[in-house]
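Z., the sequence and structure:
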Amino acid sequence: LISVGCVHGDALAVPSLGLVGQDSNTFRQGSRGRALHSVTFNRGGHTSVDSVDTLAAVRAGRVVAFSAALGSLLQGFDTGVVGGALLFIVPEFGLADKPWVQGLIVVTSTVGSLVGTVMASKLSDTAGRKGALQLASGLFVASSLLLAWSPVVEVLLVGRAIMGVAIGCASSVVPIYIAECAEAKNRGALATVPQLCISSGILLAYAVSLAVTLTTKNAWRLMMGFSLFPALLQAACVTFFLPESPRWLLRRPGPANQAKARAALARLRGVKTVKRPSAAGGGAGAGGAAPTGETNKGVRKAEEELPPALPLAVEAEFAALVAGVQAESAAAAAQVGSGGRGGRPEESSKGGEAAGWAALREPPIRRLVLVCMGLQMFQQCSGINAVVYFTPQTLKLSGVPELFSKFGLGEDAASLLATIFAYAPKIPSLLLAMRLMDADGWGRKTLLKTFVPGMAACLFALAASFSLVNGASSSVLPGALALACLCLYGSFFVLSLGPIPNILTAELFPSRCRSAAMACSLGSQFLFNTVVGLAFPVLRQRFGSAPVFAGFGGVCVLAWFFTERFVPETKGRALEDLAFSASK
């Protein structure tokens, strides 16, 4: 979109983006070791060599992604632990004949997530991505303590509601934060990390539930209170390991924020920061002008954490980010000035462009919001959380305990062990998804079109397994079929509808409305999560499991046609390029 580089003498080089100045030639060579070398031949025939520690950049990206995604681990743990805990909550509080209360226990956290999503939309734009994640960490700790106590159903519901607010806040911010911090070439892989953490959290929840079931009677509070440990870990990681998003900082006014953005980008690309004394009289601000007063202090503080010189590739990427953010703001302001697409003046940013919720009224952006909300609807109506929440009960009904009866396990323990087997394949499947997300010949849309039909086939086969339970003299065959179907269904889900709706939402929108668009998208997810969570136990009790799972399979068929018609591909494109396309 815009060719911008770092000028050294009269040479222009943008090695990280592959952009070359008009009168220069740039060659890049990746060695087998640690460095990526960029040699620029300028007009005078002189050369400058830039060496970027690519392994350090990869490590830094992974540390940041996994630290941010610990909130997703807690989301997965909360989603998975309720399935095992319900095996003991139902008899303790006498809820066997109250399926609506069981559904309420499940979906209370989802309702809280809706609140957290809306709250995070404004909070992450004002307090920053890191500030919103710190608030989510505090809520995770508080709700974990409350769930570990829970003397009555009402306290349990309050604890799960607070946990839901934390989940909504983290779910809104984590995909945006990772997308804004990652390089375009591996953004898809890093953006899949939250889904990896969600699935790992679910698996951890069932492992904890099984361990508690085998060692302690009726200790569901211990199951739920275990989330305190990952909550404390997330709080420490967010505080000490995560820099603020450079793109968020660049949208804030002042040279101090620009200096902080430069320092944050260097840290994200693996440049080792060092404390060095500032020059007498203060450092220079952006464009070489020396800032004064409090601004001067902010610039010096940011620059004191950097080495004397950054790699050319990092400088070039930062220059491109600055230009991209400025171009995005200018284009949006021009649209508002031409009349019709922006919101009310009080809903616009200082540059004049429509921002936040007001920007969602622009027709191109509104269409993309509806596409993302539609994907989230299909994700939930494909039955994933009905499967997750009620997997132990579903496997129990399908005859799976018969498979483990020879090992001396009771029905509850056998169901939890089978659930672990059902979810274990998700982890290698997610690692495969991380490779395919940015691979040649694949991408977001191709993964959806390839694996959503597999989800449908598994759900239809699962429905058939319940019919076999009612007609077979031995329940070993339907139990084995149900377990196999759940294994494959989970694997196909994490390769398609699991991570991709959030990834697309974090990528498609301009930074001025990215948080608001994510709130709408996740609002759709949590809304339909609530509907499915409440409706599933009631529908299963009234119609049986087979028709309900067959209906989920039909939804997957519709999701394939929706993807083919409406979903765009974003693989390998810069966020600023996607934002420019979204504004047209």
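Residues 57 and 271 are 7 Å apart (CA to CA). Strands lie at 6-8, 11-14, 19-20, 25-30, 35-41, 47-53.

Let me know what you think.
H.
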